[in-house]
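Reviewers asked in the last cycle whether our approach scales beyond single polypeptides. To address this, we selected a multi-component target totalling 866 residues and predicted its structure end to end. The input consisted of the following lines:
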Amino acid sequence: MTSSTALLTDRYELTMLDAALADGSYARESVFEVFGRRLPLGRRYGVVGGTGRLLELIGRFRFGDAELEWLRREHVVSAETLDWLADYRFTGTITGYREGEVYFPGSPILTVEAPFGEGVILETLVLSVLNYDSAIATAASRMVHAAGDRPIAEMGSRRANEDAAVAATRAAYIAGFAASSNLEAGRVWGIPTMGTAAHAFTLLHDTEEEAFRSQIAAMGVGTTLLVDTYDVKTGIETAVRVAGPKLGGIRLDSGDLPKLVGKVRAQLDSLGATGTKITVTNDLDEYAIAALSASPVDNYGVGTSLVTGSGAPASGMVYKLVAYRNESGDWVPVAKNSDGKASIGGRKVPVRHLDSAGIATSEVVHIVTRRPPRDAGRELLVTLMSGGEADASFLGPDGVKAARAHHRRAIEELPEEAFRLGAGDPALTTLFV
Amino acid sequence: MTSSTALLTDRYELTMLDAALADGSYARESVFEVFGRRLPLGRRYGVVGGTGRLLELIGRFRFGDAELEWLRREHVVSAETLDWLADYRFTGTITGYREGEVYFPGSPILTVEAPFGEGVILETLVLSVLNYDSAIATAASRMVHAAGDRPIAEMGSRRANEDAAVAATRAAYIAGFAASSNLEAGRVWGIPTMGTAAHAFTLLHDTEEEAFRSQIAAMGVGTTLLVDTYDVKTGIETAVRVAGPKLGGIRLDSGDLPKLVGKVRAQLDSLGATGTKITVTNDLDEYAIAALSASPVDNYGVGTSLVTGSGAPASGMVYKLVAYRNESGDWVPVAKNSDGKASIGGRKVPVRHLDSAGIATSEVVHIVTRRPPRDAGRELLVTLMSGGEADASFLGPDGVKAARAHHRRAIEELPEEAFRLGAGDPALTTLFV
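The resulting structure, written as structure tokens, was:
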């Protein structure tokens, strides 16, 4: 994890920097803000994901010889700008919502304060990380709620870009998933990993029984056997005959699950395998999970729908300049007026209002270039990076644990209607004051 | 690009290996096949993406100290299996469709031949790369066709995981996109990059005019000015006043484009800027591009819809054991019979039948464990890796160029109906013989 992230950047950021270095405006103290104009698909809340990853990636946003040489050869920027980039290191301040926090339309999720030149070139990296990870965390949180007390394992790595898969696993865990199949996510982020066997293992052996015997010899009777390669009923008979009634679990990866699971439970019970757990993994999403709530499922495994954000694979967050300090030392709020894409200028301080029972009632965003906040609501901003140094508590596996715990707390504040799966309005209204 | 890819793997692959090493079945010569059961969203054809990337990533699928130590600590596999992994290097053969080739339901896109233990642990890496890159290439190819002769630039990095973004850019270029905003894709894959300025640059300056003057001073009058920060009409007046009628281009990133573009062209022409090009970049997908075909657009920029596969962010490809060689030396075709997810056993050799005009008529897949192929159709398989060594012609920027050229040829063979944007049947029927 030492390679440069500096070219994970859209070319226009460097050409803007080039022009701003030439005209002097690069040094203007600036405030950039990340927000989403709306929640996707009529969802009721969003979940901030990626913050801890982002802080590490910004630490590696340095232009080394390979990057500079390529920029020179391609004439992307001037020689002066190359010199400036060679010394580049982000020295500004980043505040934002905690990772795992919930957000609503217009919530100022991240605020980057730095000279324009330092901040403008982070746009793509910031958005790539927050847009993808938040899309996954948002979908995952709905699935976790739909599953109730039953654990969900993340198994979608094969349906996402190989690096995105690790990020998706991390985001899902923050939003309450119990474990993942992805080993790299285990190694790097400390996420519990799980998994036993695929159909290939059964197919490789001359009989299903031989495959089950081999798996039990290697992993013990507590393992989970995949029983649907040929015929589920026969598979379960064989599984319990081979493992005995102490068999840990069986997995179903096909079929009409709401119908099948009850029969499977009855068969297991009739064979004395009353403690054998049932894991289902067949193209599940939050709706399929909810539809199985009355079925005797013990564990869910979710793949494709998780890593693709269950219909919303990108969160739609944008990174906008909202204020700069002019030569007189005054902060100037700025906003574009583009048709359908207008923004709100000024630095912002968001708080969440709660009622006496601790349930959130609104998201109040103070535009502090207008007046300073005086508000009893829960403050939503924390300092993530200061003087270019990340707060270590947000990094690595500890940061993941903290974000997971924070998500659980943030969710507890939400009103009942936040958890409806149907499309509708955001659970909280965002007020700009 | 030297870090290990070995843990971009689902845990069950290593636990299967563990059991197979213990029972001896790990050494069975095996054939694994990648295919998709269907094309997403009623599309007419799919495009294979990611092959060149995959070959490089398999070359880095080695277990180093960091990976082995973590596996040991987590008790994922036995000590014997750890020793085996320490020496692991893929030594098998990989054949497959060329990158950029089109494919249909059941097309055997990739075939991995190796001892079971060597092949089984590549499943997740193979699928992650092919599923994501093919999803992007498939969406991109439709967009390129919808755009006709007008170039499309890829600008979606901010709406995808930061590493996935580089892969998406590469896949889009293979499918015919002209350029990308992503600098890392330029550096690593040799893809042309583009981009000039965002709204932030205009907002940072005291007036739009100052911003335009600065940009032109740095980049010349051939640059493209973003004119919709405040008011498009005024923006264009200012742009042409500052740059003169030789202004290279203007960009529109908002508004009702089919209505707006005609007016903008007329305004530019009336100002004498008849050669100034119009680039549009507002939430485009293949349908929006098609809807602009009668408007005087010169260049499209596509972001979110490209990197999210325009509604189908994962291709749904699977990696299945289809044959193994038993102790008598006979090849045994294997297939699972799972409800709704049955597979077809046996090694396969696909060819594409063409009519006398060179137009494809069907995808014929010979199951060679049944009988050897004798077929005048175009052979679809090439050897990508042999004895664990990749064919260098598929790697790096040269591999990307070759894939792009191949895609153009493959597309020319498709019948007219393949290019309909509406949902429907695959353009070719796949026949298993």
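The first helix of chain B runs from residue 11 to 23. We regard this as preliminary and will revisit it once experimental data from Aim 1 are available.
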